[in-house]
Amino acid sequence: MLKKKITYTDYNDNERTEEFLFNLSKAEVLEMEMGVNGGMTNMIQKLVAEQDMERISKTFKEIIMKAYGEKSLDGKYFVKSPELSTRFTQTEAYSVLFLELLDPDKAAAFINAILPQDALAQAQAAKDELNTPNLVPVE
Question: Could you tell me the residue ranges of all domains in the chain?
Answer without folding.
Answer: 2-121
